[in-house]
Specification:
This protein has about 180 residues and is α+β, with helices and mostly antiparallel strands. The chain is built from 5 helices and 7 strands, in the order ααβββββββααα. It has helices at about 5-15, 25-35, 115-135, 155-165, 170-185, and strands spanning about 40-50, 50-55, 60-65, 75-80, 85-90, 95-100, 105-110. It starts with a helix and ends with a helix.
Length: about 180
């Protein structure tokens, strides 16, 4: 069943900031862009190719949506299984998220500094959990995430673990062992 604008607004309302500063035009357009089984797991505002919009994380892809003031629409999606690397950096007030995909890179600039790390680490955790699930022997369902449990308990744990590794508080071996334990491998 297709998502309605009300469904999307409810998903965004469950996010940590509740979508307080989210572009209304882009949110209205999301039901027409999201797939029936996709859920908004996180969202930030920023600029991509000098266009303002929102960067949306779902369990399957990243979407940049720019609904222009004069009715134009720009959408670019980045499937999680095609993202080879995700980087982020922060300055005094703003941050930047860079997604690398097969020979391409997308730079989302002017992201609120307080949201940059959380968003990027959550996406990294989703990418990693998809990669681990794909390498596991035998058919295994992908971990399900629901907005009602935040961005998903599994994703949250993996994001926290990734942040500890990034901060240098965990070695590669400690990180791998803890990740296997979280994923039940």
């Amino acid at each position: 069943m297709p998502l309605s604008e009300k469904d999307v607004v409810q998903m965004i309302g469950r996010l940590p900031l509740g979508g307080k500063f989210v572009g209304r035009r882009e949110v209205k357009e999301l039901p027409n862009i999201l797939w029936d089984d996709e859920q908004v797991l996180d969202l930030v505002q920023g600029f991509y190719n000098n266009s303002p919009g929102i960067l949306v994380a779902t369990q399957k892809r990243l979407l940049f949506v720019d609904k222009g003031m004069l009715g134009g629409l720009k959408v670019e999606d980045f499937p999680l299984d095609k993202i080879s690397s995700l980087q982020y950096s922060t300055g005094m007030l703003l941050g930047e998220i860079t997604a690398f995909t097969s020979g391409n890179k997308a730079i989302i600039k002017n992201v609120d500094k307080s949201q940059t790390r959380t968003f990027a680490e959550g996406v990294r955790a989703r990418i990693e959990s998809r990669s681990v699930a794909a390498k596991a022997p035998g058919p295994q369902p992908a971990p399900q995430e629901t907005p009602s449990s935040g961005a998903g308990a599994l994703t949250d744990e993996l994001a926290k673990l990734g942040a500890l590794k990034t901060q240098g508080l965990l070695s590669e071996d400690e990180f791998a062992a803890a990740k296997r334990k979280i994923l039940g491998l």
